[in-house]
Write a structure and sequence with these properties.
The protein is of the alpha/beta class and about 130 residues long. Helices cover about 55% and strands about 15% of the residues. Strand 4, helix 7 and strand 5 (about 125-130) form a beta-alpha-beta unit.
Length: about 130
């Protein structure tokens, strides 16, 4: 079964409760232990958390998921991906490149609402699922 690196854009919709479809999918993936986390998403979520409840959920639930660490190999790979993307004429936030690198290195699907990942996917072959209009 595929694992999912859930992007911050999806987590924000999940926390804000604006999409039952997203909430249901996240709870399903959590129950199946198919969500993985990395430091970029964790930091973005903690930075934008609204209140103690969200902070505690991130710390107690999300940081205890399978977690991808970053080392020299990872950052070198980020640079390689970033270079390919830039050569294709696309400027991309480093945070998105880092999420894509972890997903590609670990054969995960990025679950997102951010169209940047479509461009990254086409250039470097990372798998992604984009949810729109939720």
């Amino acid at each position: 079964m595929n694992r999912y690196l859930v992007d911050t854009s999806i987590w924000v919709k999940f926390f804000r409760g604006r999409s039952q479809v997203i909430k249901d999918r996240i709870f399903q993936l959590l129950a199946e232990n198919r969500i993985v986390m990395n430091g970029v998403v964790a930091a973005e979520l903690l930075l934008g958390a609204r209140g103690k409840k969200e902070v505690e959920f991130v710390k107690e639930k999300l940081l205890n998921l399978n977690y991808f660490e970053a080392d020299k190999v990872f950052f070198t790979y980020c640079g390689t991906i970033g270079s390919k993307i830039r050569k294709a004429g696309i400027n991309m936030p480093l945070s998105d490149i880092m999420i894509a690198a972890h997903a590609k290195m670990n054969d995960c699907i990025i679950f997102t609402m951010d169209k940047h990942f479509e461009a990254i996917g086409q250039i470097v072959g990372v798998q992604y699922g984009i949810i729109e209009n939720f």
